[in-house]
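Tutorial, part two.
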Amino acid sequence: MIVIALFMFIFIVFALGFLYFWGINPGEVTVFLTSDLSYTLPTTIMLICVLLLGLLIGNGVHIFSAFLLSFRNWKGGRRQKKAEEISSIYRSGVGRLLSGDLKKARTLLQKAVDRDPQRVDSHLALASVALQEGNTQEGIDLLQKARDLDPKGLEVLFKLATTFEEAGRLEEAMGIYKELLSSDGDNRKAMRALRDIQMDLGAWQEALELQKKIIKVSSGPKADTEKTTLLHLRYEVARQNFENGERDLAIETCRDIIKKDAGFTPARVTLGDAYRQAGRNEEAVRIYQDGYKALKKSVFLARLEDHYLHAEDPAALLAFYRSQMQADAEDLLLKLYLGRLCLRLEMVDEAMQHLTDLETSNVEFTKLHLLLAEAQRRRNHIEEAVSEYQKALGIDHHLRLGFVCESCNAKFSEWHSRCPECKTWDSLVLPERKQIQDAKLLEEPKMIPHGAREE
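Running the prediction step on this input gives:
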């Protein structure tokens, strides 16, 4: 009732206004639509028509806008609902993937991809399923599709690059990392990954140049590690120079590396080798001797032996060994090398003295027993020699063959149901089991009666 009354009130006001304006505006207005077509109307009628037309157009535009807004909201609501459904499927698929249910994960994630082929995360998760199933090429194909959808996406590019690496396709992995660096030149993760591949490929100079860039963007504790890596890469470039005949360059670099890190053994060894190759034997010997005195590494003793025995000057080597023994009588590594040298020079008694000192110091390894066995043999102590050979071969009085773990290769004299090292059950077998199983008798074996001897 109120609405009707309001409508009637508005109508009366409008009618009174119309009559009022008509009364005070008695004239007429002629409107030409074309040169030959015109309409003559009272001024008030014309005014009312114009107002009505304006209201009609305004309301029409408003109604149309409201319709478009409603349509868009309806369409957006459908898209949102669809996106929520796909997200739910995706989350369920990822959950299955994390729990190890690859079959169900594949079904759900494939459904998510089919519902929305533009979702990058669905392609990434499905690629992870394929890779865990061992379908490397399928995983790469899915990652390539994700890359097409998001060409600059860091997650996609890194995942694709690491997959190429694991598949052994290093050149393609390098291409992805270079693409990453072309758009983000300070990406340390990409630089380190590219550097590691270059190191694997032996591209030492390229790795060195990249390492210099890595250091520029590194800070904190990691910067010290990167500087150490830079030093090692400089060494590899120097070693490569040495192998390519650029001795002077290698010598200069190795000397500089030793100044910066006196404990880096490879630089000292290569520097000595370069001196030897250049005929600067005294300098080479000094480098090897100083290297052993400073670092106590056996490689320097091996280099000294190679030099002196090749020069047919074992006396000089013996003199160095004995002088070092006087300086450090507890140097068991030197005792081992001195004992071996004495054995090679048929100085058997002195060799036995040094090697026995090692054995009585609870040093236990195969080659020591072999050296002791050889020394006993040369002294014609056959039983002692046999005993040492048995120790070297790991043979006891019961002729036990021992066991080895198929999982971690740990060796044991007794069988265990579970490997004490890697905790794997039912993994201990005869060390030579596979070799024996794979072998075949070449001919029919002969039956030999018990107690008889084969003729």
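The radius of gyration is 45 Å. In part three we will examine how such features are distributed along the chain.
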